[in-house]
Amino acid sequence: MDELTQQHLQELRRGTVVLASLLTLRTPGYGYGLLESLAAAGIAVDGNTLYPLLRRLEKQGLLTSEWNTEDARPRKFYRTSAEGERLIDALLTDWHEIDAALGRLTDGGTR
C-alpha cells in the first residue's frame, strides 16, 4: 500500500478510535486491556496514541477513572461517563447518516 493511501486510511480511522474507546469502556477497563479489545475488534491503535487520548477524554468529562491498587501493580481503570454516553449517541447517529450517504453514492442512489 502506498504512503498516500496509508495517510488517508489513518485519517479515516482516527475519529473512530474515540467512538470505539467510549463504546468499549462502557465496561470498565484499563489502557492495555483496551488496546487488546480494540485490536480484537479489528481496530489497531498504538499505545502512544491511546494513552494521551484516554487522558484527553477524561479531561473532557467523557470518561471517569479510578485506581485499582488491590493488585501488585496499580492500574487506572476507565469507564464511559454519562456525558460520554451522550456523545456515543450523537456520534453513532452521525456515523449511520454518513454510512447511508456513502451507500447512496456507491450504489447509484438505490439505497
UniProtKB/TrEMBL annotation:
Pfam families linked: PadR
Residue ranges occupied by any Transcription regulator PadR N-terminal domain in the UniProt entry: 26-88
Coiled coil, from the record: none
Gene3D superfamilies the UniProt entry points to: Winged helix-like DNA-binding domain superfamily/Winged helix DNA-binding domain (1.10.10.10)
Xref: InterPro entries: Metal_resp_DNA-bind_regulator, Tscrpt_reg_PadR_N, WH-like_DNA-bd_sf, WH_DNA-bd_sf
Protein name: PadR family transcriptional regulator
